[in-house]
Prior knowledge:
The structure holds two protein chains of two kinds.
Chain A: E1 2-9, E2 19-26, E3 31-35, H1 42-50, E4 57-62, E5 65-66, H2 75-79, E6 82-86, H3 97-106, H4 112-125, H5 141-153, E7 159-163, H6 171-186, E8 190-195, H7 198-204, E9 207-212, E10 215-220
Parallel strand pairs in A: 3-8, 3-9, 6-7, 7-8
Antiparallel strand pairs in A: 1-2, 1-4, 4-5, 9-10
Helix pairs in contact in A: 3-4, 3-5, 4-5, 5-6
Chain B: H1 2-16, H2 18-55, E1 57-62, H3 79-91, E2 96-102, H4 104-114, E3 132-137, H5 143-150, E4 156-161, H6 162-205, H7 207-216, H8 220-261, H9 270-299
Antiparallel strand pairs in B: 1-3, 1-4, 2-3
Helix pairs in contact in B: 1-8, 2-6, 2-8, 2-9, 6-9, 8-9
Amino acid sequence: MIRFENVTKVYPRSSRPALHDINLEVNRGEFVFVVGQSGSGKSTLLRLALREEQATRGTVLVAGHELGRLPHRKVPRLRREIGTVFQDFRLLPNKTVYQNVAFALQVLGRSGHAIRQVVPETLEMVGLQGKEKRLPHELSGGEQQRVAIARAFVNKPAILLADEPTGNLDPTTSLEIVRLLDRINRTGTTIVMATHDDDIVNQLRKRVVELDNGEVIRDENQGVYGAAR
Amino acid sequence: MRLQFILSEIWIGLRRNLSMAISVVLVTMVSMYLLGLGLLAQRQADTFKGYWYDRVQVTIFMCTEDSGEPACDKKAVTEEQKNAIKAQLDQMRPLVKNVYYESEQQAYDRFQKQFRNSPLAGNVRVGDIPQNFRVQLSDPTKYEVIVSSFEGAPGVGAVQDQKKVLDKFFKGINYITIFSFVLAALMVLCAVLLMATTIRQAAFSRRRETGIMKLVGASNFTIRFPFMMETLLSSLLGAAAATGLLWATANYGFNRYLNQLILDQAFIGVSDVWAITPWMVVGVAVLSIGTSWVTLWRYLRV
Lengths: 229, 302
């Protein structure tokens, strides 16, 4: 589903590579935690997969697209196969919960009929039924992140990338959010989640890829957060 | 659904950025008004030329007893001299297309009619304008031939070429036209810069929305189209307002006022406004789409 082959990323005006000669393969339906300290290259990894950045060297393959050769106009098509969730939720403050989720389908030109069917289903799945008409500021952080997850998942993407989705949440809420991602994973969606929340990683016992200074220093199935140390 | 969604996005965008949209409308209006005035002035010059060149005449004034010209020697023209001039003019066909003889009474009547609204009319008596031959040329540019043949001839007081007078007038119109085109060009530049700034500002204020659109894989078209349409709508509104102003100028300024004051037929009218309107609208549309395309390409990349 996602493959990095000898990928190096050097940002302009930076001497040290953010990622250095990375090899990584994520199979369809996997749930992978990418862990590591701040600046270890977790976010860069996700940005490369989203094609927000391009690799300096090496090959990035996502959902069958070789991103280095993907023409600009086909980037939107790639992103329709990827859902994205961030630490800061990124909701539209003047739209309701329902409208925020529907927005993702509207901009893709989906029919009103399809939207009216899929959005409530998705909101129910993330546990937000009855809160469709709330505005983001009327929700708790955990609920806002659920809206963001619903928006990322409403188009049934093959891949869901989550960049520190629990970074702004308390431990209990964080666990609920990750359980929700786990449920989505069981529908067949590949999930890559960057985090430095050790509790969560240790509880879920999923595959863990650890980055340090832009290099993969550990990749184990059913791993824990700090096994290498 | 998609159309409805895009329309609502455009509406929200316009409402949120109302002051900028209004400024685009106004600046487009002023620039298109100036451009329109330039175009109308050009058409006015053409209309005048068509009107006057058809009528342009070389006038050969006869001597009167009060003539100041040395060639006359204070003697009025005789019948023989008049016949000789007429015969000579007839020999000059086909350069000479038509010759009209105008007696002192006829000259007086024509003057009274032409200047009926002017205080000048009251000061002129029969005999003040000498009897004359009005010569119409098949080629108005060759008036020199007539001037050189008749100037100083017996009985001829003065030879006056109207084209010379008119050319000065047309030069004046030309300067006005050039001036209004230069002003219009500056205003159009203003309009383009303002459109670009407006789009940049709108793109910045909606970066959250566009960011999400990009993330979920909206096409470039979907992301950029509302911005483009907002600019297009504002500028077309400006062009419509400019057309309204030009119509008012043509209708109230030219039709109602000048035409009655001076001459009929010689002035442009509302139909000329309608003739230039499509060009202005197409021009504005091309300008705003082009500007927004370039600006969005620079500031709203995927």
